[in-house]
């Protein structure tokens, strides 16, 4: 299946003016100019503390602005706490490193990262791999380039971890996802403030995740639940996204410097996306406030929509199945969906205005041939009146002019999916 | 007279005792067999006794054996001299079912890797500058990394764990001047590459890398595995060895483009990008044994490449050498884009050209 959407802008020419960039409403309290500058001795000592760390130890980061010229790596040491004097008081800058993508890189069990900022790493600010029992608490990651397309990839990046808690953090200006939990199990992401990233929070190929009480504001996309092919952990299931405020996620997609895309699915996310489920399984989205997304508040999509090849990998599926979306509130004041990405153009051309819920209607033939029989078990129990729901019917040709849109909410509001997560006790 | 003779004898005895003490003390640190492993890391490289004579000549001591992988890792064009030492009576073994694993070395093995730049690459044995010596030491079943930084006088190297940026310059084979800020990694950065399932492991000394001939200091040209076996450093049957496909040098005119490219990717990328390595997160596996083209990048879209993906869709887009993520990342020195992410601050032009022409040769 191909979406041949290029050229669609012609359909729209002269119909709308491109919407203005929205104003920034979140601002960080971080101000490094007021901080004492760490001396070369202090910096060297901090690097040594990471290298010499022993099990059970606490590495204290004093108040100050640390300009590092090498990575901080904790090499598989258990029960280590890395603690600063406060999120805005202990600040580690990696703008000067010349080798190594990540600023801080952590492996070990029973790790706590707390009360500091990591900024301006060339790749990821904090990558944690192979950790069992991992807490990020009141950690700030950000990039400070004037040009956001010069930002690094992920802010907070646990991968291949178990029992992960990310709470009370502030994450901004990631060129990909601010908080990105990949190939992990048993995850809580709560009480964070996440703004001006391409993706605010992303759960990818992970099991048992709960994402709640977060504020995601002015990202390109607020919260993503993705399954990508070909990975050691082939698939993820069971994510709950609830009680979040997802507001004004209309930021330009700066994942590629010029308006374009590459093989990273993130580059295809249209500005004005609240929540996107891509190739997800057992995902429950409820009690969220979705406010002023200009394109789609919630999108339910198959990996086919990316137009990337569909590899045959055991355990992985390109389809989204067993979804429960209910009891969210939707508000919108923007009338003009995104026109920079194919998916946005499609919504603009076919739905004409921003949508609360869009389902791409791409189904697995082995589970059924008729989308109106809901073979993928997509369950929508929204109470809001005048809910803007659209289901697409994309023909085999993929020709845009042949794509049909249906507003048959009743096809999807009679089933129920109970998603059972077992998040870590932390 | 007797008195004076007595004094003379006394002095002589004293001198002999002191000399003996010094000699013994000295002897205790002039050969690796005398190393007290519980005292590691030693502060100075000379204390290990790897070399005889002038340290900077890197003349190996008895049973300190030079070795060379056939496909070499690019490290900003630095030259490398590698040596291995194992305790008397112990030897390495091989598991033919794990061809990507290094030799299984005995406890107290030391691998010694010296990084240097000849002032003039057309005179590789001429004036040179040694920057660092990295030791890998196996003790109680696990490997430890000990980095040493050479002084400017080239008389000694001191243990240094925090890394450093060192300006270096040289004239290459074509007489062109190069100047870079060589990045000596910090101790924990070593593990970023020397890592299989979170355990610290050597990268170079694998059968697929050592199964070729080199010319030894004694003038003999000999297959390395043969030499290792003769010296008692290797215990492996020829049947075992024969089961492991050797890599080839990127400059081997006899070898196919495919073998040269896959060998290059194995040594430069495959230590991280394999199912047991830290880059397993990407699903991109570049070890030579990987058979599935998707996993070595063909029409594979990235997972967490971020800015490293550039404007391209696939790690390898067959026929599109320049428009593939792999060459884009090899062709960058931006630390958020470049691959490998450690071990270089410059571009390996010849390596990029090899991989580009290989991708160009691939059919969709």
What's the order of the H and E elements of chain B? Answer: HEEEEEEEEEEHEEHEEHHHHH
Shape summary of chain A: globular
Name the beta content range of chain B: 15-25%
- The structural class of chain A is mainly beta
What is the strand arrangement across the widest sheet of chain B? Answer: 3-4-5-6-7-8
Spatial gap, N to C terminus of chain A: 44 Å
Terminal CA distance of chain B:
99 Å
User: Biggest sheet of chain A: strands, sense, closure?
Assistant: 19 strands, parallel
What is the overall shape of chain B? globular
Low-confidence stretches of chain B: 20-28
Q: What summary fits the major beta sheet of chain B?
A: 6 strands, antiparallel
pLDDT below 50 for ≥5 consecutive residues: which ranges of chain A? 9-23
Q: Which structural class is indicated by helix and strand composition of chain B?
A: alpha+beta
The radius of gyration over CA of chain B amounts to 23 Å
User: Overall mean pLDDT score of chain A?
Assistant: 92
Rg over C-alpha atoms of chain A, rounded to the nearest angstrom: 21 Å
Explain how this protein is built.
The complex is a heterodimer of chains A (426) and B (364). Chain A is mostly beta strands and 426 residues long. Helix content of chain A is 6%, strand content 35%. Chain A contains three helices and 31 strands. Chain A has helices spanning 9-12, 40-51, 342-351, and strands at 58-61, 64-67, 72-74, 81-84, 90-93, 104-106, 111-119, 126-129, 132-142, 156-159, 162-167, 170-172, 177-182, 185-190, 193-195, 199-204, 207-212, 215-217, 221-226, 239-242, 245-247, 273-278, 281-286, 289-291, 296-301, 321-326, 329-331, 355-359, 378-381, 389-393, 404-406. In chain A, the strands form two sheets. Chain A has a 19-stranded parallel beta sheet that branches. In chain A, strands 3-6-8-10-13-16-19-22-25-28-30-31 form a twelve-stranded mixed beta sheet. The radius of gyration of chain A is 21 Å and the shape is globular. Chain B has 364 residues and is α+β, with helices and mostly antiparallel strands. Helices cover 22% and strands 20% of the residues of chain B. Chain B has eight helices and 14 strands. Chain B has helices at 2-28, 190-193, 207-210, 224-231, 238-242, 257-269, 325-330, 349-361; strands spanning 51-52, 59-60, 65-67, 79-85, 110-118, 128-139, 142-150, 157-159, 164-171, 177-184, 195-196, 199-200, 213-215, 221-223. The longest helix of chain B has 27 residues, at 2-28. Chains A and B meet through helix 2 of A and loops of B.
């Amino acid at each position: 299946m191909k979406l041949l959407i290029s050229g669609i802008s012609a359909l729209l020419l002269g119909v709308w003016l491109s919407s203005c960039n929205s104003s920034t409403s979140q601002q960080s309290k971080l101000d490094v100019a007021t901080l004492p500058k760490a001396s070369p001795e202090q910096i060297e000592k901090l690097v040594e503390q990471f290298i010499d760390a022993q099990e059970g130890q606490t590495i204290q980061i004093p108040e100050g602005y640390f300009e590092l010229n090498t990575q901080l790596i904790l090499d598989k040491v258990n029960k280590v706490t890395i603690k600063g004097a406060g999120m805005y008081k202990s600040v580690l800058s990696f703008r000067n490193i010349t080798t190594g993508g990540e600023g801080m890189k952590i492996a070990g069990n029973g790790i706590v990262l707390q009360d500091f900022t990591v900024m301006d790493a060339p790749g990821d600010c904090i990558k944690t791999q192979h950790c069992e029992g991992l807490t990020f608490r009141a950690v700030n990651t950000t990039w400070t380039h004037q040009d956001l397309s010069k930002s690094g990839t992920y802010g907070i990046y646990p991968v291949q971890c178990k029992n992960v808690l990310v709470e009370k953090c502030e994450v901004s200006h990631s060129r990909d996802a601010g908080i990105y939990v990949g190939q992990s199990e048993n995850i809580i992401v709560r009480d964070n403030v996440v703004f001006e990233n391409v993706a605010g929070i992303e759960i990818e190929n992970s099991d048992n995740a709960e994402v709640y009480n977060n504020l995601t504001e002015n990202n390109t996309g607020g919260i993503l639940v993705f399954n990508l092919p070909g990975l050691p952990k082939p698939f993820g299931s069971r994510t709950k996204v609830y009680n979040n405020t997802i507001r004004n996620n209309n930021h330009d997609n700066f994942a590629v410097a010029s308006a374009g895309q590459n093989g990273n699915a993130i580059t295809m996310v249209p500005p004005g996306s609240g929540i996107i489920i891509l190739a997800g399984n057992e995902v429950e989205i409820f009690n969220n406030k979705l406010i002023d997304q200009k394109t789609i508040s919630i999108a339910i999509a198959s990996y086919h929509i990316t137009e990337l090849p569909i590899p045959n990998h055991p355990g992985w599926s390109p389809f989204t199945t067993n979804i429960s979306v209910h009891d969210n509130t939707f508000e919108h004041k923007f009338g003009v969906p995104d026109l920079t990405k194919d998916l946005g153009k499609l919504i603009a051309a076919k739905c004409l205005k921003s949508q609360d819920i869009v389902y791409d209607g791409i189904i697995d033939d082995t589970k059924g041939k008729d989308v109106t029989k809901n073979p993928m078990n997509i369950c929508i129990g929204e109470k809001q009146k005048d809910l803007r729901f659209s289901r697409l019917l994309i023909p085999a040709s993929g020709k845009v002019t042949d794509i049909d849109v249906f507003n048959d909410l009743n096809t999807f509001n009679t089933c129920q999916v109970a998603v059972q997560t077992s998040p870590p006790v932390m | 007279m007797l008195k004076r003779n007595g004094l003379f004898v006394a002095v002589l005895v004293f001198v002999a005792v002191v000399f003996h003490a010094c000699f013994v003390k000295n002897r205790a640190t002039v050969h690796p067999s005398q190393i007290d492993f519980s005292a590691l890391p030693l502060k100075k490289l000379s204390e290990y006794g790897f070399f005889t004579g002038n340290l900077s000549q890197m003349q190996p001591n008895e049973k300190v054996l030079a070795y060379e992988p056939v496909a070499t890792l690019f490290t900003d064009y630095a030259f490398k001299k590698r040596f291995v030492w194992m305790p008397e009576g112990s030897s390495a073994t091989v598991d033919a079912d794990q061809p990507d694993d290094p030799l299984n070395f005995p406890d107290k093995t030391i691998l010694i890797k010296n990084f240097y730049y000849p002032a003039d690459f057309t005179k590789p044995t001429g004036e040179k500058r040694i920057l660092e010596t990295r030791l890998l030491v196996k003790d109680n079943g696990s490997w430890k990394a000990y980095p040493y930084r050479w002084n400017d006088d080239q008389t000694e190297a001191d243990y240094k764990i925090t890394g450093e940026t060192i300006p270096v310059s040289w004239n290459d084979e074509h007489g062109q001047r190069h100047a870079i800020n060589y990045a000596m990694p910090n101790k924990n950065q070593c593990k970023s590459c020397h890592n299989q399932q979170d355990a610290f492991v050597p990268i170079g000394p694998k059968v697929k890398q050592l199964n070729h001939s080199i010319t030894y200091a004694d003038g003999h040209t000999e297959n390395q595995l043969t030499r290792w076996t003769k010296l008692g450093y290797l215990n492996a049957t020829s049947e075992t060895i024969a089961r492991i496909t050797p890599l080839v040098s990127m400059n081997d005119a006899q070898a196919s483009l495919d073998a040269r490219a896959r060998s290059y990717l194995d040594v430069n990328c495959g230590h991280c990008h394999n199912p047991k390595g830290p880059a397993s997160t990407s699903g991109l596996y570049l070890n030579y044994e990987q058979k599935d083209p998707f996993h070595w990048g063909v029409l594979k879209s990235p997972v967490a490449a971020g800015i490293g993906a550039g404007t391209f869709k696939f790690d390898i887009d067959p026929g599109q050498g320049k428009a593939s993520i792999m060459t884009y990342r090899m062709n960058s020195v931006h630390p958020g884009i470049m691959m490998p992410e450690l071990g270089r601050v410059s571009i390996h032009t010849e390596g990029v050209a090899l991989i580009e022409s290989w991708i160009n040769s691939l059919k969709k």
